[in-house]
Amino acid sequence: MTTSTHFWDKIARKYAAQPIKDPTSYEHTLGRTRSYLPETGKVLELGAGTGSTALLLARSAGQITATDVSPEMMLIGRENATAQGIENVNFISAAADDGRFSDGSHDAVLAFNLLHLLRDLDGTLTRVNAALKPGGYFISKSPCLGEKGWYLPLMVAVVRVFMAVRYWRAPPFVRFMKIRDLEARIEAHGFDIVETGNFPADPPNRYIVARKR
Q1: Range from 4-18, 109-123, 148-162 carrying the lowest mean pLDDT
Q2: Could you tell me the CATH number of the domain that includes residue 171?
Q3: pTM confidence score
Q4: Contact indicator for 62, 41 with CB cutoff of 8 Å
Q5: In this structure, which long-range contacts are made by residues 70-73, counting pairs with CB atoms below 8 Å and at least 24 apart in sequence?
Q6: Tens digit of each residue's pLDDT (9 = 90 or more) over 96-115
Q7: DSSP per-residue codes, 79-121
């Protein structure tokens, strides 16, 4: 079990209880995402956390596989699915670059608030491409913290120290991406970007819809 897995397992219950910080932006991107999902389609979500987004999208797809590195997060997702009577969402503990899903069978792959936490972003993008059917959609939303000033890395470093002391676990890696760099990486892995937006705008949380070539 990795350090990151330990960290997310430790905070899972508290994480699940937190309200959405920007419900307006969340609902907007949720609606845009629904518009790309075929009703009978097969969807994979990476870094799904407790699966709250997957459960909200359940009626818009035939089958959703929600994955996360944290087994405790996945357990909470299963509990919520049972409580809501949702049967078409499966929960699997797996890293974002897990090769089990590289079968070219998915209509869409989702990654919300995940890409900035990945050390091997290119490896994950390669797996995403392999998981999708030709013409399938990769839909992501990522904080692009590199667009902010020099002070933000310092603030994040302070928060990481606080979290490490509080939870006795090293917090996850954080990547300070710029929008143009993120979009260039996605395009370089065999995608054409068809829709973008910042929700919220400051700091920009970049919503990107990309179609596999």
Answers
A1: 148-162
A2: 3.40.50.150
A3: 0.90
A4: yes
A5: 70/5, 70/8, 70/9, 70/12, 71/5, 71/9, 72/8, 72/9, 72/12, 72/13, 73/8, 73/9, 73/12, 73/15, 73/16, 73/48, 73/49
A6: 999 999 999 999 999 999 99
A7: HHHHHHT--SEEEEE--TT-GGG-SS-EEEEEEES-GGG-S-H
Domain count, the chain: 1
Domain extent for 133: 3-212
- Name residue 36's amino acid: Y
Q: What is the 3-state secondary structure (H, E, C) of 165-186?
A: HHHCCCCCCCCCCCHHHHHHHH
The reported pLDDT for the residue numbered 6 is 84
Q: Please state, in angstroms and rounded to a whole number, the distance separating the CA atoms of residues 89 and 80.
A: 11
Cα separation, 192 vs 154, in Å, equals: 34
Neighbours of 26 (CB within 10 A): 19
Instruction: Give the Å distances, CA to CA, from 48 to 43, 108, 192, 201.
Output: 12, 14, 24, 23
